[in-house]
Amino acid sequence: MEVEAGNAWSNIIGKANSSGLDVVGTDSLTVSVSGWTLGGGFSPLSRKLGLGVDNVLTFTMVSMNGDIIEASAKGTKTTSRTNGRTSTSSDKDLFWALRGGGGGSFGIVTKITFKLHRPPQANIRHLICAYPMFVGQFNIGQQFIEMINRELPNLAPEWGGTFHTDSSFVNKTLNTTGIVRVNFIHYGAMNAQAVAFLNKLGNFRNTQIGNTRLGAVGQWGCSNGTYRRWADYVANTLFLRLQEPILILTQITNVLLPQEALVPKNIQGILSHFHGPRISPGLNKNYGLSCKWSLLGGAISQIQTESTSVSGDLRKAKMSVTCNTIWDPRVPAGREQAIAAVMKIGEYMKTLSTGSYINMAERGVRNWKQRYWGVNYDALERIKKKIDPDNFMTCSPCVGNDLKHTLTSKYDKNTSGNTGGTSGTGNSGVATPEPGSNPGGSRGSTGSPTTKAAQSLILSIAFIVMIY
What we know:
Blueprint: E1 2-4, H1 9-18, H2 33-38, H3 46-49, E2 56-62, E3 68-72, E4 75-79, E5 86-89, H4 93-98, E6 108-114, E7 124-135, E8 138-139, H5 140-151, E9 159-171, E10 176-187, H6 192-203, E11 208-209, E12 212-213, H7 214-217, E13 221-227, H8 230-242, E14 250-257, H9 264-271, H10 281-284, E15 287-295, H11 312-316, E16 319-327, H12 332-349, H13 368-373, H14 377-387, E17 438-439, H15 452-467
Parallel strand pairs: 1-17
Antiparallel strand pairs: 1-6, 2-3, 2-6, 3-4, 4-5, 7-8, 7-10, 7-13, 9-10, 9-15, 11-12, 14-16, 15-16
Helix pairs in contact: 1-8, 5-9
């Protein structure tokens, strides 16, 4: 399936569905096609069907000098900006780099072709749960998360999705603080193992808190339903995400946790940041702290690290944990409190693993090359120097971020360049999908077009935007 940048994932998934096929994409409304893919791209379907980059067949990209390049597993096809002639090469480096190297470094990706999949015959099961993080001093959230972690080594790959730990819910009447919200799907037929896992999550409401059953404290528990197709799930749960604010002030931090890091003392360490003065009724009005725990493993871990440029930490992780905070801009003290809270939890989480997810990048990360790309970084930098020798396209933290910006003789020597990144928006055309194909775009910050190469690049972007 072939889609250009500018499309929403809901449209892309719906278009694939109209041809009776499924595409691996995110169910998040505001995430761009290309940015999501270039960083690796994990989805509720990824434990069964792999990362977004594992499903890419072709990238179409505008290079720094204005050439149009199609990169695939077969090599590259380049259409010259100057004379329109096409040349081919068996060099697969660019295709490898774009499959996880992140946006803003190699060029402007205007189109991505994804492999499509025949959907399972069985309905998709959708599971929603809600439990308190704390009832008084009882750490209910930790018990619940530990139960999920014990299941991960043998969890069927059809299970995918996320759960959230959120400090923003305080109920003085029930004496509860925080909430754990589960949003899982099962992509395929439910077998006995899948039913047992579903029942464990639901039966957690029978957990004893002293002499009281958790379910008696409030309306805690799980509910589940079915959708015929992946697209039905995305369309029918879209209204929930539409209620969320599109523009918020936020600070994020991320860590990729392997199975060996998901032990009780580490879970307790993370959740300890949700309990205490940070979420007292007074401060709770100023900011909230939330962590999103995404299920990984399954098909993601079956691909060799060197096959794509995503880090080995992403391949071996069982969970991606992204914590963020939002604050009320009308309360000046809330900003400092919020940022301090998320930085503190981030510092702790980074002691648990060497890897973080580039699509959840944050400022000021030490050893960022290792943390976002691991052993793949040196090869990515080599390809960066080849495709963009002047390091014109840059962002932070991105591949080549610390390289010096220079001009070479093939560009305008009389013009002094400046360092900047570029981003482009392709049109929203969606090609008729076939079994074996999908879309994309790019991200970055815009720099001054001070060279002829930069000018041709901007003209290319303008043409794409004009089509849109």
